[in-house]
Amino acid sequence: MADPDVPTDADRLEAGKQLAGRLFAGAPRGSALPPEMARHTMGHLFGDVWQDDRLAVEQRSLVTCAILAATGREAELTMHIRGALNLGHDRGMLEALFIHVAHYAGWPAGVMGLRVLADVAEAMAET
Known about the structure:
The protein is mostly helical. It contains six helices and no strands.
Protein backbone atom coordinates (compact mmCIF):
# COMPACT_ATOMS: atom_id res chain seq x y z
CA MET A 1 0.00 0.00 0.00
CA ALA A 2 1.34 3.42 -0.99
CA ASP A 3 2.12 5.95 1.71
CA PRO A 4 -0.34 8.84 1.22
CA ASP A 5 2.32 11.33 2.43
CA VAL A 6 4.77 10.33 -0.31
CA PRO A 7 3.97 11.90 -3.67
CA THR A 8 3.66 9.58 -6.65
CA ASP A 9 5.62 10.11 -9.86
CA ALA A 10 2.45 11.57 -11.38
CA ASP A 11 2.07 13.96 -8.42
CA ARG A 12 5.67 15.12 -8.76
CA LEU A 13 5.31 15.57 -12.51
CA GLU A 14 2.17 17.68 -12.06
CA ALA A 15 3.74 19.76 -9.26
CA GLY A 16 6.81 20.31 -11.44
CA LYS A 17 4.74 21.45 -14.40
CA GLN A 18 2.79 23.87 -12.23
CA LEU A 19 5.94 25.37 -10.72
CA ALA A 20 7.69 25.66 -14.09
CA GLY A 21 4.58 27.37 -15.46
CA ARG A 22 4.73 29.87 -12.60
CA LEU A 23 8.46 30.50 -12.96
CA PHE A 24 8.69 30.76 -16.70
CA ALA A 25 5.36 32.41 -17.53
CA GLY A 26 5.73 34.65 -20.56
CA ALA A 27 9.08 33.17 -21.61
CA PRO A 28 9.66 32.61 -25.31
CA ARG A 29 9.60 28.96 -26.26
CA GLY A 30 13.00 27.45 -26.88
CA SER A 31 13.88 24.11 -28.34
CA ALA A 32 11.95 21.26 -26.79
CA LEU A 33 13.89 18.88 -24.59
CA PRO A 34 13.88 15.20 -25.47
CA PRO A 35 10.97 13.50 -23.64
CA GLU A 36 13.13 11.71 -21.08
CA MET A 37 15.00 14.91 -20.12
CA ALA A 38 11.70 16.83 -19.93
CA ARG A 39 10.35 14.15 -17.58
CA HIS A 40 13.44 14.40 -15.34
CA THR A 41 13.28 18.21 -15.40
CA MET A 42 9.60 18.43 -14.52
CA GLY A 43 9.23 15.36 -12.31
CA HIS A 44 12.51 15.34 -10.42
CA LEU A 45 14.01 18.84 -10.56
CA PHE A 46 10.87 20.99 -10.32
CA GLY A 47 8.54 18.32 -8.93
CA ASP A 48 10.80 16.99 -6.18
CA VAL A 49 13.96 19.08 -5.53
CA TRP A 50 12.23 22.48 -5.86
CA GLN A 51 9.30 21.24 -3.71
CA ASP A 52 11.48 20.65 -0.63
CA ASP A 53 10.09 23.10 1.93
CA ARG A 54 13.41 23.63 3.73
CA LEU A 55 14.03 26.45 1.24
CA ALA A 56 11.19 28.60 -0.02
CA VAL A 57 10.77 28.69 -3.78
CA GLU A 58 11.83 32.35 -3.70
CA GLN A 59 15.06 31.47 -1.87
CA ARG A 60 15.74 28.56 -4.20
CA SER A 61 15.29 30.91 -7.15
CA LEU A 62 17.97 33.30 -5.88
CA VAL A 63 20.38 30.46 -5.15
CA THR A 64 19.80 29.09 -8.64
CA CYS A 65 20.46 32.47 -10.27
CA ALA A 66 23.69 32.87 -8.31
CA ILE A 67 24.92 29.38 -9.21
CA LEU A 68 24.04 29.75 -12.89
CA ALA A 69 25.86 33.08 -13.08
CA ALA A 70 28.87 31.73 -11.19
CA THR A 71 29.14 28.77 -13.56
CA GLY A 72 28.56 30.79 -16.74
CA ARG A 73 25.29 29.08 -17.72
CA GLU A 74 23.84 32.07 -19.59
CA ALA A 75 20.95 30.32 -21.39
CA GLU A 76 19.58 28.80 -18.19
CA LEU A 77 20.27 32.01 -16.27
CA THR A 78 18.07 33.88 -18.73
CA MET A 79 15.16 31.59 -17.87
CA HIS A 80 15.78 31.71 -14.13
CA ILE A 81 16.07 35.49 -13.99
CA ARG A 82 12.61 35.60 -15.55
CA GLY A 83 11.55 33.14 -12.88
CA ALA A 84 12.96 35.31 -10.10
CA LEU A 85 11.18 38.37 -11.46
CA ASN A 86 7.95 36.37 -11.86
CA LEU A 87 8.24 35.35 -8.21
CA GLY A 88 8.36 39.01 -7.17
CA HIS A 89 12.07 39.64 -6.72
CA ASP A 90 12.82 43.17 -7.84
CA ARG A 91 15.58 44.19 -10.19
CA GLY A 92 17.54 45.94 -7.43
CA MET A 93 17.77 42.73 -5.39
CA LEU A 94 18.97 40.79 -8.41
CA GLU A 95 21.54 43.48 -9.21
CA ALA A 96 22.86 43.18 -5.65
CA LEU A 97 22.97 39.39 -6.05
CA PHE A 98 25.12 39.60 -9.18
CA ILE A 99 27.45 42.19 -7.64
CA HIS A 100 27.92 39.72 -4.78
CA VAL A 101 28.54 36.92 -7.32
CA ALA A 102 31.21 39.08 -9.00
CA HIS A 103 33.21 39.21 -5.77
CA TYR A 104 33.11 35.47 -5.10
CA ALA A 105 32.91 33.88 -8.57
CA GLY A 106 34.78 36.45 -10.65
CA TRP A 107 34.01 39.76 -12.27
CA PRO A 108 32.97 38.25 -15.63
CA ALA A 109 30.36 36.05 -13.91
CA GLY A 110 28.80 39.00 -12.09
CA VAL A 111 28.88 41.24 -15.17
CA MET A 112 27.27 38.50 -17.28
CA GLY A 113 24.52 38.18 -14.68
CA LEU A 114 23.91 41.94 -14.75
CA ARG A 115 23.79 41.98 -18.56
CA VAL A 116 21.37 39.06 -18.71
CA LEU A 117 19.21 40.73 -16.05
CA ALA A 118 19.07 43.95 -18.10
CA ASP A 119 18.09 42.02 -21.24
CA VAL A 120 15.40 39.98 -19.47
CA ALA A 121 13.96 42.99 -17.65
CA GLU A 122 13.79 44.92 -20.93
CA ALA A 123 12.11 42.01 -22.74
CA MET A 124 9.56 41.61 -19.93
CA ALA A 125 8.80 45.34 -19.94
CA GLU A 126 8.00 45.15 -23.67
CA THR A 127 5.32 42.49 -23.17
